[in-house]
Amino acid sequence: MLYKILIACFVMLSLNLQASDKYNVLLFTADDLHGASLETYGGKVKGLTPNLDKFAKQGLTFDRSHVNVAICAPVRAVIATGLLSHNSGALGFMPTRPGVPEVSGIFRAAGFKTGILGKYGHSTPVPGMKWDYNFDQKDLGNGRSPKLYYERTKKFLEMCKSEGKNFYFMVNSHDPHRPYCNPEKLTKGAEMPSKVYTPEEVEVPGFVPDLPGVRKELAMYQNSTRRLDDTFGKVMEALEETGFAKNTLVVFMTDNGIAIPFAKCNTWFHATKTPFLFRLPGVIKENTRDNSHFVSAVDLLPTFLDLTGVKAPEKQDGKSILPILKGGTESGRDFVFTQIDSKAGGAAVPMRAVQNAKFGYIYNPFSDGKYYYRNNNEGLTMKAMNEAAKSDPAIAARVKMFRHRVPEEFYDLEKDPNCLNNLIDNPEYKSIIADMQKKLEGWMKETNDPMLEAFLNKNDRAKVDSVIIATYGKPKQKKKKKKEKKK
Fold it and tell me: Fewer CB within 10 Å, N- or C-terminus of the chain?
């Protein structure tokens, strides 16, 4: 009997030693977080995200970090596959092409245990994709319960420990996605944040006007952001308690910018800007910043595989940033390319953008002067802007720009980080604009972007429309409301 016990102990010890030889990965994502809300990224609301700001000092913070698509489902497909939307097939709220290699399958085949909390559907884009452990929104207090995230995280980590397994764990908060936290009408299952905010305590982003209705909504957004921070803190607590903090790469990011006009579901640069916080004791130096390399969500999967030694798929659009995490430098990271294809509801609104440290260029093939653009759930901010536009010509012009866009935009990001002044027709920038256009064209060719033909024929509206239809299908017609019959 003693012999059997000793053998069992030896097996468990060897399994745990085997697991500790490799690194684990924990990716934590926020939902619709404005990157500049964090104090570590210049947020002016002191103490809004204490756990995240503390975490930032424990590792590396990227200043030039972006998502490739500023919409929840398609960017999560980028994360899952390491492929751009047009190369995976996930051009919006749709699955990838069957058989595309994906993160959970890759890690499971290598003997890792995989788990996911929240945003399950959006983070599981490949047909047949499976996770070893998952709990979705309804089992996490509507995705807004720090306590339940802690409990589910700890259970998964303890399972990995008992089985001697390394892990890939994706933890997705549903905060600060709408509905924002209204203390007077708390969403069912959700917890209250550790602090609530008033409209007077709000920081209004520079790309929207400072109006009472905007402040009212942003106060509730900040409540949700604080609860996100509470959730992150509890997940880190579970990681520490289970002993995995020392050999786990932890990454924090948001899937896209805040869900107000001029941010989420666009290619403006505050829409795609994401916090990128990385911690791995002994590998990543504490309290460091990288303000020279452009990195993006498509680089995550190659980085995770590079770190863990797991074999990568043959095709990847991203590139490992492990050398940068270790303090090195990489050439070819002076630009970032972003895109939109279709949004919730299936409407095709293709956009392409390229940005460097000083300038940004955007091409909007969908913009024809007639198309009426809208985001889903525009909220109190859009309502306040629409009302103010009746008497304020400047706000009216902003609303018009949001609703119809223009085919091309160009911004001096050093002088105008909020992208308020479109310089596309300014002759002083003509050569710079031409260089940016050439850079975007090269990327589109290199990645087999179906919008390349539209870009090369951007002055031919009929040709552009035919390319859009060929890529995304005919636009959906809105059903006309039936007239009431006279009694």
Answer: C
